[in-house]
Design brief:
single chain, about 240 residues, alpha+beta, two-stranded antiparallel sheet, 8 helices, globular, PNPLA_dom, lipid metabolism
């Protein structure tokens, strides 16, 4: 569909245009064959899906149902055949930035921008949106005994400049790379169904170990598909 064939640069700028931080983005696509154009006026995709994991799973499931493709031996809702890696962009959730006593005296401006430089209402909506999806997806996979097929890597302990979304200095970029690389050495964690908080799962090793296992599964699946005489996949998507 030519009118949906947007430049990747426009897509990236649009989905990063967080309200109050960065400006909304406009671009236009054109169907050269018909001359028709389509205008896009967009802001950060996180406004509707700050954690797009569940949306992605739904889209894949929908595609399998619509296309009637037999990519699952047990049907499109057989989650044992899904491998999901969810990479968070970090948050400052663990930092005690606000208290009910403080918020009780806030007016409109304080909710939008605190004296410490944070945006309380935006931070709260963003975190709750992402955390709820992580909780729901994690519980879904656990309930279906496929918890090892879902890997969430997220740092909720960001502080200072690293916790901002609009500081693109060389120093901050290098710090974020350091934090990201450090996450590989951390123990795999999974949401506790009672508390809703992530807890370490030592027996599954580090995030790097889990990624290696995922990579092997995908590699084995690709080899199986390529050698299948019928051209049908055997397991994971």
């Amino acid at each position: 569909m030519p009118l949906k064939d947007a430049l990747l640069s426009d897509v990236c700028i649009s989905t990063s245009a967080a309200p109050t931080y960065l400006p909304a983005h406009f671009f236009q696509t054109k169907d050269e064959a018909t001359g028709k154009t389509r205008d896009f006026n967009l802001i950060d995709g996180g406004v509707s899906a700050n954690n797009p994991t569940l949306l992605t799973i739904n889209q894949i499931t929908r595609k399998m149902i619509v296309d009637k493709q037999d990519l699952f031996t047990g049907g499109p809702t057989d989650y044992d055949k899904f491998l999901v890696i969810s990479l968070g962009t970090g948050s400052a959730k663990n930092a005690a930035m606000y208290t009910a006593k403080d918020a009780a005296g806030w007016g409109i401006l304080s909710w939008l921008h605190s004296k410490e430089g944070y945006t309380p209402i935006v931070d709260m909506f963003s975190y709750s949106s992402a955390a709820l999806v992580d909780y729901n997806v994690s519980i879904l996979f656990q309930a279906l005994h496929s918890e090892k097929n879902y890997l969430r890597i997220q740092d909720d302990s960001l502080k200072g400049t690293a916790a901002t979304v609009d500081v693109a200095t060389k120093e901050n970029m290098e710090e974020l790379v350091r934090i990201g690389e450090g996450m590989l050495a951390k123990t795999v964690s999974r949401v506790d169904m009672e508390t809703g908080k992530p807890v370490p799962v030592p027996e599954e090793g580090t995030n790097a170990d889990a990624l290696t296992r995922f990579a092997k599964k995908l590699s084995d699946e690709r080899k199986a598909r390529m050698t299948s005489s019928q051209g049908k996949p055997s397991s994971a998507l």
